[in-house]
Amino acid sequence: MAEVDDLVGEIEAVEEKLAAAKASITRRFVGQEQVVDLTLSALLCGGHALLIGLPGLGKTRLVETLSTVMGLNGNRVQFTPDLMPADILGSEVLETAADGTRSFRFLPGPIFCQLLMADEINRASPRTQSALLQAMQEKVVTVAGENRPLGQPFHVLATQNPLEQEGTYPLPEAQLDRFLVKIDVQYPDRDTERAILLATTGVAEEDAHAVFTAEELIAAQKLLRRMPVGESIVETILDLVRACRPEDPTAPERVRETVSWGPGPRAAQALMLTVRARAMLHGRLAPSPEDVVAMAQPVLSHRMGLNFAARARGDSLNALIAEIASGASGIEAAA
């Protein structure tokens, strides 16, 4: 019983700090509460997030603010078509000492940090994008045959322009699967846009302040994994993920007719973590079916794809996920 009380006390303490972190972030990133919640969820889970939206919606501002508020050492890389893998990972240079001897010295790239902002990631070539694959999964990079560990914790927050824009390359499925969540950043409503104008065009702007340290964030990530998840929530997650696979015998007929490829076990792992994070961000001690429904689209939409016929008909993947999530959880889902 004492162990349960300790766990409850620790969760409540982290929830208070998260509330303070959200308040600090939203003073600079106005009005996009869901975007802030999803990004914080990714950090709490120790994962990476992909923010998708048109230029000028504040994605870069959000990531910079998060770096300050969460107490992380951050670097920013602007992805361009001529960017090379060595520009991200680093490289070895040949140096000549005073006595004439020569040796190689490794110059670390910007990836050696705790929070890497990959700005407009889909403007770089697939070869350069692939430089992040090992780092995002294993938290190390291999250069010149040597494994080099990255910062602790290590997160990638990438921004992406819509694929319809000029000069973009689609991210390969293997890399998309490494992002814990995909976050759609939409245009703000009129009242929010008015608040943004007033907050950002004056003489002074709100400053973010550190709420967490890197060590406190790591402790929160470990605590998150101790949060209990009910058996019914586990079954709901399994039902949802397996229903999105066209090869699964339990998949609905509509999935088999419209989905080309479905989510793998990593999607179920991501849901298990993110529903806990959402519960923690909302001041609760355990996740609910509503958390599963809320996290279904951010976790699954980049891990499955519509087939050609469905795309030609103009079918919506988000609407399909909402329908399946509603059936798996037994509650109404938002499309």
UniProtKB/TrEMBL annotation:
Residues 48-181 form the ATPase AAA-3 domain. Signal peptide: none annotated. Belongs to the MoxR family. One of its GO terms (molecular function) is ATP hydrolysis activity. Residues 253-320 form the ChlI/MoxR AAA lid domain. Pfam families: AAA_3, AAA_lid_2. Keywords: ATP-binding, Nucleotide-binding. It comes from Pseudooceanicola albus. This is AAA domain-containing protein.
